[in-house]
Design a protein that fits this description.
single chain; 557 residues
Length: 557
């Protein structure tokens, strides 16, 4: 690799196309659409995370710029997301009071720790860890989290001080209820009418003006309140005590994993549209740097927003320049709109959060999953239930789901599919017992194992053949159709050689069909011989079946 290529690999933004007037015009329009959407969303999501509202705007400027400069997927919108903010709130519950200085400091450390972890994973090329969470677990966790997000916003949306006031009409605040439900209805209608229209910001500005005109705050309504203007000061928070820091480790792991899964859902759509391969390790680096900058900006962990990334693509974004314009829009708003946002009712922010997560609730996915794979459907249902039950410690839900799916995966590896094959009328080899086929040849046991012959499957492979021979002592031929076996490790080699020796001692001839070259090379390195009277090798199934039947007939004569 040349020095220029190495530099572009480390600094992906050097590969961006040279800006032209036409390109910048389109990127500016896309950036404007996303920027106008992220301003009210950032404020609302910051409140969800228990952070000062202005930190949601901080998280949408420098972190977004740094993330896009160093990511491979340049059309993703990075900033506050509902799921990450809920995890922040869940991870810090019990450690500090929401909105307090201690809470803000711990949220900043969550950003720094999760950013450093993602950065480390990216440089070590550990993007494959993403595969530890399968789609059913992620779907179940996301839907449970969406319900919890909605539940956490209902008191503000309905104008309640607490859930206890739900049964008492005197505790309801009518103007807050009107602002909340009215905003929610307008957001749902506007999203279906025209996704690229900056309806969220216009609704928020309209609500702020109406709130100020009606004296909403003076009448007892909860509003955003005064926000500091200007850019955040880049500072490093004080290091908390080790006892407190250790309690952040598990939330850090889950935020890192879930936020990158959010990135994956958007990045895959982006790369599929381009027809390119997703560079998950580079995106880990970019997202990690974005989180670190968010911490230095006094904000909280950021992530890729699926809805804003979809809007970015829908608005015609082609490169990372759209994010540059989007950050510029937010930066201008930090000075212009701050005085206006103080009048926004909390019910309006709650409606923004609820409208954003409603699309995550998809109960039909569970029914669809039940039709496809019932075990995975049960794992998804348990993940969903555990996530709700352990709230606010949501990370136990996703960890339980990962553990269950990995256990199921390990069970499948330890119990590989091994079938006795027979010749189907269409000429293919199929499961003899399922299709009620005769044996492939007299006194012969023909089997196929659809798995690698490694430490997980070796014991089951050996046990299957030994038990068959014990039940059928007249067997004279064992035929292994080895095409599906594409890997063998030292445990598999030992089991294979041991089985070959046992078959020779019992006077049983071993037939091997279609052994793959990597498996053959490994066996030869272990001392196995191609030319041996105890076994015979064949390349095709047709050749194997013909030879096996001929030998069986000869032995009968």
């Amino acid at each position: 690799m040349s020095s220029a290529s190495r530099l572009r690999a480390l600094l992906p933004f050097l590969s961006w196309p040279r800006p032209t007037a036409a390109l910048l015009r389109g990127e500016a329009l896309a950036g404007l659409a996303v920027g106008l959407m992220v301003i009210p969303q950032g404020v609302a999501y910051a409140v969800l995370a228990g952070m000062p509202p202005v930190t949601g705007i901080y998280a949408s400027i420098l972190p977004a710029l740094v993330a896009v400069l160093f990511s491979a997927s340049t059309r993703l919108s990075v900033g506050p997301t509902a799921l990450s903010c809920l995890l922040i709130s869940a991870g810090l519950t019990g450690l500090a009071q929401p909105g307090s200085v201690e809470w803000v400091q711990l949220a900043i450390w969550l950003a720094l720790l999760s950013g450093l972890l993602q950065l480390l994973l990216g440089f070590m090329r550990f993007g494959w860890l993403l595969n530890l969470v399968n789609a059913p677990v992620l779907t179940a966790f996301t839907q449970a989290a969406a319900l919890l997000i909605i539940g956490s916003q209902l008191p503000d949306l309905l104008g309640l001080q607490s859930w206890q006031q739900l049964s008492s009409p005197q505790g309801w605040h009518g103007p807050s209820l009107a602002f909340g439900l009215g905003t929610l209805a307008l957001l749902i209608v506007a999203r279906r009418w025209r996704p690229t229209f900056p309806s969220v910001l216009l609704i928020v500005l309209g609500a702020a003006g109406l709130s100020h005109f009606l004296g909403f705050e003076a009448g007892g309504g909860a509003v955003v309140g005064a926000l500091p203007a200007g850019l955040p000061a880049l500072t490093l928070p004080a290091l908390p005590e080790w006892k407190v820091l250790s309690q952040l480790l598990l939330p850090t792991l889950v935020i890192t994993l879930v936020s990158f899964l959010e990135t994956a859902s958007s990045a895959k759509v982006d790369n599929e549209g381009r027809g390119t391969r997703w560079n998950q390790d580079q995106d880990l680096i970019g997202q990690g740097l974005g989180k670190i900058v968010a911490g230095f900006s006094g904000a909280f962990p950021t992530s890729s927003s699926f809805s804003r990334s979809a809007l970015n693509l829908y608005a015609g974004a082609q490169t990372g320049w759209a994010t540059v314009f989007s950050a510029g829009v937010v930066l201008i708003a930090l000075w212009v709109l701050i005085p206006v946002l103080r009048h926004v009712p909390q019910a309006v922010l709650a409606a923004i959060v609820v409208a954003a997560v409603l699309g995550l609730i998809k109960p039909r996915e569970f029914a669809r999953l039940w039709r496809i794979a019932r075990v995975e459907a049960v794992i998804a249902a348990l993940t969903f239930g555990i996530t709700l039950a352990v709230s606010p410690q949501l990370y136990w839900g996703v960890l339980a789901g990962v553990l269950m799916s990995l256990s199921y995966f390990l069970y499948q590896r330890l119990h590989p599919r091994i079938i006795e094959v027979g010749l189907h009328p269409d000429g293919s080899l199929r499961d003899r017992h399922l299709w009620k086929l005769p044996p492939l040849a007299p006194h012969a046991y023909a089997l196929r194992m659809d798995a690698a012959l490694d430490f997980a499957a070796a014991a089951e492979f050996e046990r299957n053949i030994v038990e068959y021979l014990a039940e059928h002592p007249d067997t004279r031929h064992v035929c292994l159709f080895a095409q599906p076996i594409n890997h063998i490790d030292s445990t598999g080699v030992d089991a294979f050689l041991k089985l070959g020796k046992q078959l020779r001692e019992q006077g049983v001839l071993l037939h091997i069909s279609g052994m793959k070259l990597p498996v053959e090379k490994t066996l030869l390195q272990a001392g196995w011989q191609l030319a041996d009277p105890g076994h015979r090798l064949y390349r095709t199934e047709t050749e194997t079946v013909a030879a096996l039947r001929e030998l069986s007939q000869t032995s009968q004569v």
